């Protein structure tokens, strides 16, 4: 009789521990998702800020180059045309290389972020 009660108590204890473990795993998964989304959003915000600042810098540098090229080209309109052509060529080069320069790094970053096992990372 005593062995039966002890077995029942052990079984109840085991069931409680399993429920607690499942609850803790659920909380861990939620925290892991929050961590990964935080990294993703902060990276996106950083990239957006860098793009805006880069566009502003390109705008001002293009005006600087226009006025620097004006004496060489001979007219302000010609200098604008030269700088506009250079910017179009840069845009075409970026479009042509978009898979190597944009898509692959984004895919690698997202795969590393979401598919990397965080337990392995924390053990190292």
UniProtKB/TrEMBL annotation:
List residues traversing the bilayer: 37-61, 73-95
Q: Please give the superkingdom of this protein's source.
A: Bacteria
Alphabetically ordered keywords of this record:
Membrane, Transmembrane, Transmembrane helix
What is the protein name stated in its UniProt record?
Answer: Phage holin family protein
What organism does the UniProt record list as the source?
Bacteroides gallinaceum
